[in-house]
Amino acid sequence: MDFEQECGVGVTVTPEQIEEAVEATINRHRSQLLMERYHFNLGLLMGEARAVLKWADGKMIKHEVDMQVLHLLGPKVEADLQKKPKVAKARLEETDQKPAKDVENGDPAGLTLSLMEQLRGEALKFHKPGENYKTPGYVTTPHTMDLLKQHLEITGGQVRTRFPPEPNGILHIGHAKAINFNFGYAKANSGICFLRFDDTNPEKEEAKFFTAIYDMVTWLGYTPHKVTYASDYFDQLYAWAVELIHRGQAYVCHQRGEELKGHNSLPSPWRDRPVEESLLLFEAMRKGKFAEGEATLRMKLVMEDGKMDPVAYRVKYTAHHRTGDKWCIYPTYDYTHCLCDSIEHITHSLCTKEFQSRRSSYFWLCNALDVYCPVQWEYGRLNLHYAVVSKRKILQLVAAGAVRDWDDPRLFTLTALRRRGFPPEAINSFCARVGVTVAQTTMEPHLLEACVRDMLNDTAPRAMAVLEPLQVVITNFPAAKHLDIQVPNFPADETKGFHQVPFASIVFIEKMDFKEEPEPGYKRLAWGQPVGLRHTGYVIELQHVVKGPTGCVESLEVTCTRADAGEKPKAFIHWVSQPLKCEIRLYERLFQHKNPEDPAEVPGGFLCDLNPESLRVVEAALVDCSVALAKPFDKLQFERVGYFSVDPDSCQGQLVFNRTVTLKEDPGKL
């Protein structure tokens, strides 16, 4: 008998045990796996799992390791196919120790080490505060060093950045990179970051956008040092505009807007008008003596892209949400941006690449007024395939009925991603993986989804839900009433607690988990093929199929036995008993092509590229009663189904769940 035990005779290893052992092994090596990705020695994972489950099938362990590693890392990218670089041991030890330091410092956004490393000043080759003049292309004047000295006296050498959105739309995934870069760079260098609303265009600004932008910044885990507005500085900006005219560097022009468009516009015939005349006309603009479009204030410079004399002020008879009717002239981005940076003593003005053509006007304007001049640095935008993010096009989608609103979970606005159930930490992790690049980056959505799975695998408690229910009656149920089953919230770590679900003589399983005539390789319930019910310790075996008048299966009758009383089943399936009815919304990609805005790929335009299967609503799904008290945005893993989030449409007695992502990446999406 001892000999048989030593040889593993009679030892049963269930698929659940293999899954839990592999998950525990991967968790022990998670940080190194995330760092080395597919260069990590996967044999180590198999060996450790095999040591725990001595008699498990080696092929099943290998398959589970492969699946869970894919789940954690996502599909291989180009870097994973390259040879592993040689790294000094001391360097690895240093890297292993740094994440703990970031956690100790209370990193609210859950940023990974890689992003923190990228955002150190040395790594980016950025200038140190007060050493702006060392930056290539930085323009100095005889006043520069004195202004930098005054700047250092005010800031104490502190890094200062800002995130300056226009409050005319909802933030999207590209803004998440900008938020992470601006706030993250300040954090990585013990600095501060302002949230500054560029509210210089009152026609397009709405109060809801201010609130939504602030909410999304804090949702991503950041707290602005101060919330400011360009309109805070309208008086100073106007005074500087007057000074610019005095210095002969600006003039009032009467060319119409259509004449100013493009890079080859005709020179203004008013460019050399007397300073006194421009001063009087600019004052007349401020007093409302010109109609919209009749006069502008223009600066005397030529930008990198060849655009000549950009506009500094224009007439707009629109009340401002903060200043009311005080102003009928408003400054432009080209005029406002650098001067607000100067007022706030920003050290690093981080902009996306399209603003590179405005760098000359940035330096020129600060120097023309002899004020502190920050340094503008550009980085590449982040875009996603299968997505549109522009305000105008999202409004078209809403008008066409293709999506419900800005927060429709099929969009890639941040409010939409939150509603779908994407954790902010996963979005930050995705931005870290993308990295700080100068070139524009267009990523596949499945790489973002991989970060979401990685986060939810550790944070989303498990529950059971059945989307297409099939009633199963257990004819020999072992108790007179229901049994209370203790289900671990996280099967791989039972220290995180349990929840209780009822197990009665009537249960519901997925229709797809039963087949009268199974194909080869089918492992779930069929004639002569019993299955285990997860967490119950029971196996059910088919006895009778009940069909309706049309021949469709209406219910099953089965018998149950203890799982340890006989041969182990080939599979364990999820189930619910005495469940709650709920609505489940299953989302897929909104567009069918990678680049829906590309006429070469979609000649008819993005509205012709909508995926008719982008939303499927399951109105009569069943979920176990442990989720009865779930609140909007709570996140769960429905075992064997996917990750889900409670939608704000939920009300008492009627929960609505959005599918966040599937459990595993769909190979068809790669």
In words, what does this structure look like?
- The protein is of the alpha/beta class and 670 residues long.
- The protein contains 20 helices and 26 strands.
- Strand 1, helix 10 (173-188) and strand 2 form a beta-alpha-beta unit.
- Helix 2 packs across helix 4 (42-52), helix 4 (42-52) crosses helix 5 and helix 10 (173-188) packs across helix 19.
- The longest helix is centred in the first third of the chain and has 16 residues, at 58-73.
- The chain starts with a helix and ends in an 8-residue tail after the last strand.
- It is an enzyme of class 6 (ligase).
- One of its GO terms (cellular component) is aminoacyl-tRNA synthetase multienzyme complex.
- One of its GO terms (molecular function) is ATP binding.
